[in-house]
Amino acid sequence: MLACVVNVSEGRDAGVLAALDAAAGRSFLDRHTDHFHHRSVVTIGGPDVEAAVRAVARVVVARVDLRDHAGAHPRIGALDVVPFVPLADAPMADALAARDDFATWAGRELALPCFLYGPERTLPAVRRGAFTTLAPDAGPAAPHPTAGGCAVGSRPVLVAYNVWLDASPDEARAVATAVRDPQRGVRALGLDVGGRAQVSMNLTDPSRCGPADAYDAVARLATVAGAELVGLVPEAVLRAIPPDRWAELDLAPSRTIEARLREAGLDGGRSH
Known about the structure:
With 272 residues, the protein is α+β, with helices and mostly antiparallel strands. It folds into 2 domains: 153 residues, 2-Layer Sandwich (Formiminotransferase-cyclodeaminase, Chain B, domain 1), CATH 3.30.990; 105 residues, Formiminotransferase, C-terminal subdomain (Alpha-Beta Plaits), CATH 3.30.70.670. Helices cover 31% and strands 25% of the residues. The chain has 8 helices and 10 strands. The strands form 2 sheets. It has a 6-stranded mixed sheet with strand order 2-3-1-4-6-5, with helices on both faces. A 4-stranded antiparallel sheet has the order 8-9-7-10. Strand 5, helix 4 and strand 6 form a beta-alpha-beta unit. Helix 1 runs antiparallel to helix 2. The C terminus is likely disordered.
C-alpha cells in the first residue's frame, strides 16, 4: 500500500480546495491548508492511491494558475510536489514504480513537465535546478503555461513540521540555518509568513529527529510562539513522545496516518 502527499500551490480558493478533496474520493485522508503559504498538502492513501492522485492532478492543472500565485513557500509549479510513500510492508520499489508511472502519465496527458527525485537526487536539488541545470524527466521541456512544473518523488515517510517564533523573519532564517542537519534528516527554512516568523522543517528521518526534538532544538535558540504539524504523523513517531507534550507540539492520536486509514475503512492499520 502507498500514500501520496500532494503539495498544491493553492490555499485560498475554497471552491478549488473542495474540488481537490472530492477528487481524492475515498482515498482522501487529510488536507492541511495555509493562506499565507498559499499552499495545501493533501494526503491520499490506500489501495487506489494512484487513480486518486491522477484525479487530483487533473483538477490542479485545470484550475490553479501559477501566474496569479504569491505565497511564502518556494514552488516550481501548481502541482508542486507529488511524493509516493510506501506504507506497512510495501517496498520502496512500489513507490518508485508509482512515481515513474505518474510522471509519464502527467507528461503525456497533462503536458506537465515532471522532475524525478528519490534515489537520483533530492527534492531541494530539483528546486534549485528545475528548468535551468535540470531538464524534465518526462513531459515538455518548457514549463506548462499555467501550471509550471512538478517534482514527482519516492521517499520514506517524513514529518512536515513548523515552529512559530516570537522573533523577526531574519532571526527565523538564522535559526533555520542552525538547526538544519542532514545527518539527522532535518531540512529547515526560515520564512516570513504573514508578518510572523516561522521555521518550516521537513523531518526526513523522524525516528532520529521527531517533532519534539525539532521543537526543542528551535526553542534553545529563540522564543517559540507555537508549533504546527503539517499533514499527518506516523503512529510510531507519536508514541515515542510523552503524551503530556502532544498538545504543546500540535499532535494527537487522531492525526496519525494509521488512524486516518482506519477511519476511512482502508486496509492500512499497520503502516508506519
